Amino acid sequence: ADIRAYRLARVQEQLRQHDLAGIILMDPLNIRYATGTSNMQVWITHNAARYCWVPVEGKAVLWDFHNCDHLSNGIGEVGEVRLARGMYFFGAGSRMREYCTIFAHEIAELAQKAGGSRIAADHCHHLAVGTMEKLGLTVEDGQGPMELARLIKSSDEIACMRQAGAVCELGMARRREALRP
Fold first, then answer.
1. What distance lies between CA 73 and its chain's CA centroid?
2. pLDDT tens-digit series, residues 8-25
3. How far, in Å, CA of 35 to CA of 179, rounded?
4. Rounded distance, CA 21 to CA 55, Å?
5. pLDDT tens sequence across 104-160
6. DSSP run (H or E) holding 64
7. What are the Cα distances from residue 121, in Å, to 23, 25, 55, 118, 155?
8. What is the pTM of this model?
9. CA angle 77, 106, 31 (to 5 degrees)
10. Across all residues in the chain, what is the average pLDDT?
11. Closest Cα partner for 30 from 125, 114, 143, 106?
12. Is 58 left (phi over 0), alpha (psi -120 to 50) or beta?
């Protein structure tokens, strides 16, 4: 929980530094960093069926794949889970514009609650961005603030990285021992 709180605070620090009301995250690695949640990481990399809003202050709003809201139970950095509408062809088909418009209106409402009209997005369907701009939002690049947020590691993150490295090294050593000509 300490790592999750630290990471959310790092994202929100970058939002303040860039004068942003919040950020839309669709990259599963960014969602994981900001909220500590994950779901179908590889599939979600290619399909916009899971995304979140991180306001400059407060908890994240997460849109998750149907029947997956339980994956965020007990995660203190997520204040609300909503049903995601797939903003990709297979999930939306002829309803793409409708889904993007609904999402844009939800984001406009959340940005207003956060007190601003300047927001960022790491990735977002162009139809959603266009509608957000028509609603008065300015959508900036969000990948930069996310990279800057991850730049400074906490002592807990460093300990986890060391542990992951040790596990990997042990696995590789066992694999070498098992090799036979």
1. 16
2. 999 999 999 999 999 999
3. 40
4. 6
5. 999 999 999 999 999 999 999 899 999 999 999 999 999 999 999 999 998 888 988
6. strand 60-64
7. 5, 6, 12, 10, 28
8. 0.89
9. 35
10. 92
11. 143
12. left
